[in-house]
Amino acid sequence: xxxxxxxxxxxxxxxxxxxxxxxxxxxxxxxxxxxxxxxxxxxxxxxxxxxxxxxxxxxxxxxxxxxxxxxxxxxxxxxxxxxxxxxxxxxxxxxxxxxxxxxxxxxxxxxxxxxxxxxxxxxxxxxxxxxxxxxxxxxxxxxxxxxxxxxxxxxxxxxxxxxxxxxxxxxxxxxxxxxxxxxxxxxxxxxxxxxxxxxxxxxxxxxxxxxxxxxxxxxxxxxxxxxxxxxxxxxxxxxxxxxxxxxxxxxxxxxxxxxxxxxxxxxxxxxxxxxxx
Length: 277
Prior knowledge:
CATH class of the largest domain: Alpha Beta
């Protein structure tokens, strides 16, 4: 199954189950959890009732989880990206954080701020935690996943490289694209041979199978949950393949008017335009 968060034409927000070109409005059902995160926390996705339905064209999609408590991102998690950045091999995942107010939805613009021109693309697979926990073992880690989605960890490279800390370059408002839909593990199936593909204005700039992750998903969840409790609705972006714009000669930066798309097989296609603030 697949789920989205959305805003209706009257300005109210909801969430629902994808049914072809329509959305079954689960948030409108009597007694429904308040939002998709709450529905995940209740362990109720498959049992969700719905009240009416809407066409995709009649609503505005929201970031898949508009209100995650935690957004954790993995750096340099594909060997091709590690090599192009010149980073040393490490024994543990490199983890940094994003803020919830950096998120934008499928179809919404990624904003290039006025203080930089070095806006880079990073197509990634995101996981959404379904069952929380602490010290989760690798053998059980995949059972804690509510679903998968596309993510674009768009980065202001000059701000990222001001120091050795990534936080500024990863947390400008409206730079973390997330969506369009949450695809449950049973629907997603085995993702090992599914490719993370990023295109910029129709040209392929990243293309690599998920099996090429240095630290696989189960190891990431186990590692992260060892230092912080994970809760339903938390998001983990699992890293980007090689091919980022910063390491091309000359660098390939996203600019106003560009269109960037992250495609991950049947997980979906996340499309955003770039606008200048």
